Batch of 2 targets.
Target 1
Amino acid sequence: MQEADSEAELSYGRWSIAIVGRVVDDRGRAAADFVGRQSDEAITAAYDAEEFQLEIGGQRLNADDVQEYLEPHKQRSVVLEATTLGFVEIFLICRAMRKLGGQFVTLLYVEPRRYANPRRSHLLERRDFELSEEVPGYKAIPGATLMMTDRRPVRAVFFLGYEGERLALALEGYQMIRPGD
Amino acid sequence: MPEAAVVIQNVLTKNRAEELGYDMWEHFVLPPFYDLLDLQTARKPRLVIGGRGCGKTMLLRYLSHQTIFSPSRPSVPREASLNIGLYWKADTQFANAMYKRGVPEDTWRAAFMHMAALIIGIEVLSSLKSIATCRTPLLDHSELVKLNFRRLRAFDQGLPVAPEELAACLEEKLWGLESWVNDVRKVQEPQFLPGPKFILRLIETVRSQVATLKETVYLVYLDEYENLCGYQQEIINTWLKHTEPPLIFIPATKRRAFENRQTTGPESLSDIHDFRQHDLEKYLIDDKDFSVFAAEILFHRLALGGVQGLPVNPADLRDPSKLEERKSSAYRKRVLASAERMFPGVSQHDLALGIFGDEALAKTLSNRIQSVLKRRGSRMPWRRFFRPSLPEASIISPALLCRRRVDPEKLAAEMDKAERGEQNQFTGSTGWIHNNFIGCLLQLYEPHFRACPVYSGFRAFCQLAQGNIRHFLELCHKATDIGLAKGGTVGAAVPVADQAEAARQASAALLGEIRSFGRRGNQLYTFVLRLGSLFALAHQRPSQSEPEQNHFSIKGASIQLTQDDLDFFREAVKWSVLFEQRVTKKKQAYLPETVEYVLNPIYAPYFHISYRKRRRLELEADDVICLMRGSYDAVSALLKRFSREWEVEPAEMAPTLFSHLEQGNER
């Protein structure tokens, strides 16, 4: 794993194919442009949690069929642009590549410098007051679906990102989870 | 903290049914409306409705076999075996994965029915074990092991015939279903069992072989029905439509969440004909006994924590035959008096004296009187309105002086009359004190941003909780937590200031929880912040012409609202963030019937507003839309417009709450 403040400090070659997500800001654009320049081909991928489908390289597939789609790419070097891709896209592609025996997968992530700064705490912050987006909540991902029940012990790992309240969302929605047991 | 205190805190913090397991015998307090419920004896479907925290899951788990045949129950009546409750809460994340993905819908339907057959089947078999192992076994163990389920092989040749093996096999089939749902392409599709048909045959087998259970009816309590997919709800609806003994389905949902009435056939479900409703929250809110019930739950929890000398007997609280006794006047008085001793409130007069006894608050009051007299060009001495002998009247005097039609001289004369004990407008039919006191008191505390004692007291806690037991216990928990941290003892009276601070802390914590309220949690949270800020602004009106506004209606009905906006309100009501009520007092009789939305009073201490339902704010549809989905700048402009309209000076707004709205602030 490499970590650096600029492109110049990284050591990398060319990739056969870059998979990028939806670009929503300058950071994502810079990251997508970078992997695009360094790859022979760039395709986009976006997951639709309602339909359990992945739109990749202009095709819409059921999440269960990602492995078949990536079969021709299993020997190629692939870079996943993780700044723009979401968790599910990365998970589905990595899992499929692993099952296919793919050896050459790289992930790139560009973190804003301000994430490293400590956050100031106010009673009410402007971001609290702004309109927040609708969240789909926890949805099963085909291939990683667990029947949660409190009749047998289940261990789960929560990927919270920078939003700790996502754990509260899980505990509220899935009350069979009893923390501490 | 001493060990006893830690135990108490633990029993007060466990306030969700899920944290207590399935056997609720030790933990359950029969609600006062228990005799209105006929869930155990229902022969037609019932629908249980209730908001978050009203005790829905607790009740359903109490009615289920793990509690009714609990090993902790000293004796189980024979008739308990006539109706056996089976609790089922589907994992909706898993159930929702049984959809689309290139699998035909009829396959998913069959898979869902298979899942229901497995889960309910396991529960039926598990109930036999509960019955055989309770303290007064109604089923002999030898009878249990002799049970033979050979006839179920008509569904699947591989099913074992003995009960324990059959239960294990159904469990394994559930794992098999889980594997298939995970990988529908590679894993072989299981052989699906046909839902209720399988369960009915299973029940028939039990009834035909166990004499004690030959008349038994099984009631499936399906919790959180609303989170199932549309086609799954339609399957359940079809079972509801055709439900009859010995298998009855009783779904439970949040408010306004039973909208899908479709079945898998051509007929839809119809209310009353196909099912009856039990609205638990309504029973609790409407019931004047909520405060007694809340006190009983509090004392029951303390009893579980080992506290002695409490006014309740835990065994009586779970005994249906004691319900009437619990409604007697002497009992109610005793229980309420004990709760009020633990969480003492403050009378209006003492609230008023508290202002005069506090240098900073008294200064705020005198400054306000002087300021308004100056604004009105009056040369009257401010002390004529600042009278420690008339604390309530003094506190509302700045608001009255702000009203143009109130002449300062006449107002002082009314105070003189009050001081002499004569008829006056403060205490007489004009009811100046009655109408304005709480609003004016909150206003005085606002700049100091200290917790106002109006939020303290057992009765205030009950009003803040509004039928929500979880909220009530959270208030009690925070109050005792502060009390114990300051050296108080378990069960002793918690000082008023600590209770008020606890109310504010609980309110802030519960406000933060809104983000986790479903897919629109973030939007609901933002909306409550915006609405609460607007109400806080309304409370700052110097004249208090419309005091204590904490609910709103939408002018000109809701024609401008989109389907998505209406869906947003449905979510707000479903999660009890807002309560929807029919308008009771229309300002003009010719106006059409409409509804008003009341902000859940638990959020009142955070915004420093009144929790009493007094005055309504009538908002234009555009303003409501702005609060729901307007940009930050639009909401900022809206608040500024209202502050101008209500003549609220920026200096009068709490800096911590509104600082982000001031010009030049960092974004």
Target 2
Amino acid sequence: MIELFQQYYAYWFIVLAMLLGLYGILFKRNLVKQLIGLNMFQVAVILFYVATAVKPDGDVPVIDPEVGAVAAAYMNPLLHTLMLTAIVVSVGTMGVAFALIITIYRRYGTLDEVELLERMK
Amino acid sequence: MTEHIVVLIPLTFLLAALLAPLFGAWRDRAAYWVVLAATFVVACLSLYGLWHVAIEGAVRYTMGGWPSSVGIEYVLDPLSAFFCAVISVIAFVVLVHARKVTPRELPGKEIPYYSVVGLLLAGLSGIVVTGDIFNLFVFLEISSMSSYALVAMGDKRAPVAAFRYLILGTVGASFYLIGVAFLLFETGTLNMADMGRALPLMLDDPNVILGLALILLGLGIKMALFPLHGWLPDAYTYTASPSSALIAPMGTKIAAYGVIRIAFFVFSADYVSRQLPYADLIAWLSAAGIIFGSIMAIAQKELKRLLAYSSVAQIGYIGLGIGLANPLGLIGALLHVLNHALMKSLLFLVAANLRAKVGHSDITKLDASLRKKMPWSMFGFTIGALSMIGIPPTAGFFSTWYLALGAIDKGAWVFVAVLVVSSLLNAVYFFRVIEKIYLRSPDAVDKVEEDEQAPRRLLGTAEVGWSMLAPVLVLAVAIFVAGFLNAWIVETFLRGMVPL
């Protein structure tokens, strides 16, 4: 049990962050808090990718002439590059989401979901 | 030259999205014409591509000349060419209609609106042509983000609907991304074709099984598969009319494309239906969605909301075809992608015409005066409704027919029953509207008013202008054409797409 935790502890924290994010999305009434949950969820996914790129004693993925092109000696750069794109996507989503939140607040004067439903009628 | 079609399809839309604001700064209306011209060009390209691919087979394009194992590969095969053609042709028809509607519904916002429409179409067509599973995620998010923006540009409640759509859509995309991670670790590649070759060796691996489940869950949210459809009705109802006519026929179907591509091409029909229960699960959820969406549609008083719930039901048809995982079922699903795109855009365009001329699309207030005021729009609506119910020889009948054949082929009689019941429920909610517009006599006040305007009425001046009428009629005719030519469409194009 302890071994399982020690070996994969990064993943346990990622799963925890993911669940916290989902909790925020599902159970928080305030739209900004829902958005925080959403962002936690996205960041957890990004961390998941990055965590899997790690290799024991891996180095920065720039070929070192002394080591040579040995794949095992470097971190996996592909996952980092993919996540650069994913981060851009998540920033874009956040931008759209905040623009929506501002519009909602200007129109209804509240960000509480229950109150919002009241005022929408 | 031909291989460049693949990449020109999304890039033309992207270019139009960038050029629209620039041209808009020069002349307000120019933004519209830029996007319309781009859509026309892409429609021609994809129709040519569809023809070319049907004869000569798939076209591959490697970005920047990097081999597909390292770089990103774009592929135009029969399936993607078909979706490209549906997207661009329907988008062109809807945009022709949008010329008069957008300035009225979204005054002063036309330039950003058309730019976002360009982005949406770039995203949708990108999803379809990419041969890279991570690139699909990027395009999925481009199209989703533009959908959120388009949904938010509507009536007062639209931003709230858009926000809900955003939360659910992003969660769906994140699930998809985790699923991709699992498949990437196991196969070491992101290219769909390479992944498809590597996967058969590791089908029992729990990571692969979990990865596929997460991908299907993510795409299921985007597809509004019951019970993950919560975002859809509000989003389609509150947005501006051109957006609902653009997003409703394509948005959810693109996710269905993702499911087809990954379940049947990257994985195999045998794997998702026999080794794992995923296909059955999709079929049962879709069947529940068909019934639920139809019943909810009966309860609606507002035409756009009715159509939105009907979309939940109709995506169920496509999901059912996917879930049957046999050739006939899949042909039915693909044919329904085309038919539903025609019907749903037609019906949403008529709802837009009603809003433009009558000022609302509240079913309870419709009456028979409309038959005289807007005879052609109402004719279009009737054709669309008959096709939704599935009355031959309209297109809707034939896709339902193939789905039913697929269900019989599989011995799944429950699904045949579901399809029949759904047709009946469709008849209930569409005849409710048709009865109002043809039979319900307008009340006395309206009659007096009408008699004064009798000469005008006879001339039919209350009908909408040609730019809003022509798309409706073209789609109405297309429903019949697609119905009569269904055997040719299936034999020439769809057979080649089914990987079974």
